[in-house]
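Chapter summary example: a protein plus fe (ii) ion.
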Amino acid sequence: MTYTLPDLPYDYTALEPHVSKQTLEFHHDKHHAAYVKKYNAAVEGTPMADKPIEEAIKATAGNPDQKGIFNNGAQAWNHTFYWQCMKPNGGGMPTGAIADKIKSDLGGYDKFVEAFKQAGGTQFGSGWAWLVLENGTLKVVKTLNADNPITSNQTPLLTMDVWEHAYYLDYQNQRPSYIDTFINKLINWDFVNQNLAKA
Ligand SMILES: [Fe+2]
């Protein structure tokens, strides 16, 4: 099952000034495109070629002989998900069902912000911060490199890329500034609510 690089769900300039056109061009057209291309090449001729990408990710997680499929597949999936987690004029307080659930499961929006900042800020090297659902309860987690919570029976609701390529052109080494901006100006809570409704 060939995995296709999706178009961005908005124009390349749509997230400016927070995420520049140049960052999105490199991040989507170069980095994401490369993961998709390498994933398709890695699964070609293997039993994984006929499986949905989520199945291939779960089946190859932790297998040192299948790192090519896992790393590129998970990065392909993570980026497709990440683009949808942002929108122009996003961020700030959530609304709808996710707002209530953040209150009941995490102790409120401020606690979510604290945990999400902590997850993104303390992921040493490259990785991702996530808001996930685990056994019906919200959790904030972080993953290293390509790792994805679906391999831990968690349902991703929101993610933030904290690989340097996500922010370096706009924020240089100031990862905390990128994280603050992501939380306050970019999160697409409508998408998070859709994911919660489907979970
Ligand atoms: Fe990335």
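Key point: The beta strands are 127-134, 137-144, 155-161.
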